[in-house]
Design brief:
The complex is a heterodimer of chains A (423) and B (383).
Chain A lengths: L13 H24 L12 H17 L7 H10 L3 H27 L18 H13 L7 H15 L1 H4 L8 H22 L15 H27 L4 H16 L2 H11 L12 H27 L2 H9 L4 H16 L1 H14 L11 H9 L8 H30 L4
Chain B lengths: L1 H35 L29 H33 L5 H15 L3 H12 L11 E2 L3 E4 L2 E4 L1 E5 L1 H29 L5 H19 L3 E5 L2 E4 L5 E4 L2 E3 L1 H28 L2 H9 L4 H31 L11 H13 L2 H30 L5
Antiparallel strand pairs in B: 1-2, 2-3, 3-8, 4-5, 6-7
Classes of the chains: A mainly alpha (423), B alpha+beta (383).
Chain lengths: 423, 383
């Protein structure tokens, strides 16, 4: 069979071929760049659709001329290996490059170069770019909701306190380390609750009472996800153990619980907490909307947590159970000292994913009328003074959430690597 | 004795605890309903609903009953889930395979795509598409035609409607084609097992799928016409398209957000599945002389699918549940129509919320049961 070797280089002529090829690719890139930036069509003399295909054809030819198994030139080999293995790959490479050149400058100029950030009213935004003035003016609302401006320090202090308390575990003395779990599961949530209640809600110690209806913005997202996080984990652990129990009643109660919550969407759970749940409470008993929402999300996420932890429990080899039993350990002793420490180590990525899902689910509380970030955006969007900036608002919120979620997922990778033990 | 106590006391306590909680809640509910003069019952389902739904797949007007409104919502939910599942599968497979590409640029742009869409809350994505991106589309009178006959406007996407004559004949032909393909496949595998003969099943199947429906056009009296959307002037400045099918922007925003978001998870499942097939399998397959295509089709895919399908079904279920976010942008799905409007009108909170939750629960549990059965079936049976 005769091989098709039109424009195929070999080791002797690769030098010339690679020069010609790179010139061709360069020309095609210049064509696209001039088209994107300067709005000049270099190939105006070509008919119709050929002008669009011209850089593609040129680039493909160039890349084809540069392709060789081994040339000895380091850069060329690297290029061939990574972006130019065959014609199809070369085509995809060119397409990606061209679309980046076309799209990136436009969005950059919209977001940064042509954008306005000065001024403090809509009139400042006259340019063609984004109006970050809108975000600047509404920034406090987006962060703190309707919470009175002069009290924002209370939210900040409360958050700093809670975070600082969370790091206590790192600085605990070696002989106190055994109480770490106790601290994180029971003492820490109580202290955090008290701090948030007395500082953010106020009402005592000379602090003015701020009702939860005024809470909002990103801080509310943090509060809701924080409480759900620390409550859903122990609850999930209990149900995971329950589902693996030998006692049929406990097993089936756990299965029913887990399958029920995993089968319904969160939004209906939130609806339930806001319209149906008050009917199930004693008459003169009032429960704050925020508390109801936190309970609902906790119960919901606990089921997902339980399934993740159960996966970890199941993947432990039977020998671990047998060994613990042969040492004369009872059920609780065996689980607390042998099984759970290993199982939890295994499920770190899964748990992190559940927590990530939880943080991403918190904007849903907007549906029951709590104005966290998405809710504040909806409010700001309909403000008659600031109509028409929906795009900026949602891009800002997306960036904020993206940073939070991405940081969380990267942190979970690190944790996973840190606690990985050879098995 | 000690053992029996150890076994039974926790169980009795657990049951008692559950019963007490339920009893307490029911008691409260009863007193509350008595006080407010609400009675419990499902007879409101047959009453006239007297509200309108903007978009529905079946005939519906305000004079229909609440149960029909429920059906409208359910069908809308299933519609949006179905479309999104198809799109997210296609996207997810492409991205998942791209993440394993040897091309540096492709690999990394796929990774960027996944990291980008996965880490933004779905609700924000829906809002972004609905309130920001789709609002930037042209008004009906300024819209350019896509593919010549469809129009993407700020009021929705207008596509030609198909007008069938003798649709049932066509459908029967399609059904017959599918049945004959199944028969053919069984026959072919039997032939291969007993006599070692290979017949090109795929070609025959494609031919059957094309020829049988074509025959129905020629001899069955089936005909297909198109009704094109046409621009119509309502008043001086307001235009609208008439005829054809209009997909409301709510549906488009929802489908876009759901499928882009879920496709990242599907992509991760696909990647994990293909990576999960050990390298030795590929090498072994190549060493017995299979071509690269055969390696992929006969060795890698069957094993990868076994890893891919269970988590992917889970993602489909998540997508169906997430489609309830439609309520936030007023797409008339189950939650908005039934748990929103109907609840507001009747005030039957307990009944309506429990019906809605039970519906989702039924969908989830049915699919989960099917999946469990399927997993058992495809499980590798080790000796």
């Amino acid at each position: 069979m005769q091989t098709f070797n039109f424009l195929k280089p070999n080791r002797d002529n690769i030098k010339n071929y690679s020069i010609i090829g790179s010139i061709l690719v360069l020309v095609s890139l210049i064509d696209v760049i001039s088209n994107a930036f300067l709005k000049i069509n270099l190939t105006f003399f070509l008919p119709g659709s050929l002008t669009y295909l011209f850089p593609l054809i040129l680039g493909l030819m160039g890349l084809n001329m540069m392709r060789i198994d081994y040339s000895g030139n380091k850069t060329l080999d690297l290029l061939n290996k990574n972006i130019n293995t065959n014609n199809f790959n070369a085509l995809l490479t060119l397409l990606i490059l061209f679309s980046v050149i076309k799209v990136l400058p436009q969005s950059l100029s919209w977001m940064i170069l042509d954008a306005t950030i000065s001024g403090d009213s809509k009139d400042a935004c006259t340019g063609t770019g984004a109006c970050w003035t809108y975000i600047k003016v509404w920034f406090r609302r987006f962060m703190y909701g309707m919470y009175p401006n002069e009290f924002h320090w209370r939210i900040n202090t409360a958050f700093i306190l809670v975070i600082a308390l969370g790091f206590v575990g790192y600085f605990m003395k070696e002989n106190l380390k055994k109480y770490l779990a106790l601290y994180y599961v029971i003492i820490y949530p109580v202290i955090a609750y008290l701090v948030i209640y007395y500082l953010i809600s106020g009402g005592s110690f000379g602090l003015q009472w701020v009702e939860t209806g005024a809470w909002g913005g990103l801080s509310l997202t943090f509060i809701v996800s924080f409480f759900c996080l620390i409550f859903c984990f122990p609850l999930g652990m209990i149900f995971a153990l329950g589902r693996r129990s030998n006692l049929p009643a406990i097993k089936y109660i756990s299965i029913c619980y887990i399958e029920f919550w995993r089968g319904v969407p969160l939004i209906t759970v939130l609806f339930m907490s806001s319209v149906m749940f008050p009917m199930f409470l004693p008459e003169d008993f009032f429960m704050d909307k925020l508390v109801r929402v936190i309970i609902a999300i906790t119960l919901f996420e606990a089921a997902y947590c339980a399934e993740v932890i159960r996966g970890g429990l199941q993947s432990l080899p039977r020998g671990q159970y047998d060994a613990a039993k042969s040492l004369g350990m009872g059920y609780w002793k065996m689980h607390i000292f042998v099984i759970l420490p290993q199982a939890l180590k295994l499920v770190i990525p899964g748990i992190a994913n559940t927590f990530l899902a939880l943080v991403k689910d918190t904007p849903l509380i907007f549906v029951v009328g709590l104005a966290e970030l998405a809710g504040m955006l909806a409010l700001a969007k309909t403000n008659p003074k600031w109509l028409g900036f929906a795009m900026e608002g949602y891009i800002f919120a997306s960036i904020v959430f993206w940073i939070i979620c991405y940081a969380m997922s990267k942190y979970s990778y690190n944790l996973e690597a840190k606690y990985k033990t050879e098995r | 004795m000690n053992n029996i106590i150890k076994k039974f006391i926790p169980q009795i306590l657990a049951i008692l605890f559950v019963v007490l909680i339920f009893g307490f809640l029911t008691l409260n509910a009863q007193t509350n309903m008595d006080n407010r003069g609400i009675d419990f019952g499902f007879d409101f389902l047959s009453q006239e609903s007297s509200f309108d739904v903007q978009f529905s797949l079946i005939e519906y007007s305000g004079s229909d009953s609440y149960s029909r409104a429920f059906l409208v919502g359910l069908l809308n939910t299933l519609l949006v889930s179905f479309i999104s599942i198809i799109i997210c599968t296609i996207l997810g497979v492409i991205i998942g395979v791209a993440r394993l590409s040897s091309n540096y640029l492709i690999k990394n742009s796929a990774a960027c795509y996944v990291e980008f869409f996965r880490n933004i809350p779905l609700l924000l994505q829906i809002f972004f598409w609905y309130y920001a991106a789709l609002r930037a589309l042209p008004m009906p009178e300024k819209a350019n035609a896509w593919f010549g006959v469809t129009y993407m406007t700020v009021k929705g996407y207008y596509i030609p409607a198909m007008i069938w004559e003798n649709l049932n004949v066509f459908l029967y032909c399609g059904l017959a084609a599918i049945i004959s393909i199944i028969v053919l496949r069984n026959y072919a595998s039997k032939l291969r097992d007993t006599q070692g003969k290979q017949i090109p099943v795929f070609l025959y199947s494609v031919a059957l799928l094309i020829v049988l429906p074509l025959l129905s056009f020629l001899f069955g009296g089936v005909s297909l016409g198109f009704e094109l959307p046409e621009l119509k002037k309502l008043s001086k400045i307001s235009y609208i398209y008439e005829g054809g099918i209009s997909l409301p922007p709510e549906l488009i925003a929802l489908v876009l957000a759901l499928s882009l978001y879920t496709s990242t998870f599907v992509a991760e499942c696909v990647r994990a599945g293909i990576e999960g097939v050990s390298k030795g399998q590929k090498e072994a397959a190549a060493s017995i002389g299979l071509t690269p295509n055969q390696v992929l089709k006969l060795v890698i895919m069957p094993q990868a699918l076994r890893i891919i399908i269970p988590p992917t079904t889970n993602q489909y279920l998540n997508l169906t549940k997430n489609s309830s976010l439609a309520a936030a942008i007023a797409y008339p799905d189950l939650v908005l129509v039934f748990a929103g409007t109907a609840l507001m009108q009747t005030g039957k909170a307990i009944e309506i919320v429990s019906i809605t939750m039970l519906t989702y629960l039924t969908i989830s549990l049915t699919i989960a049961a099917i999946m469990n059965w399927y997993n058992k079936k495809i499980e590798i049976k080790e000796k």
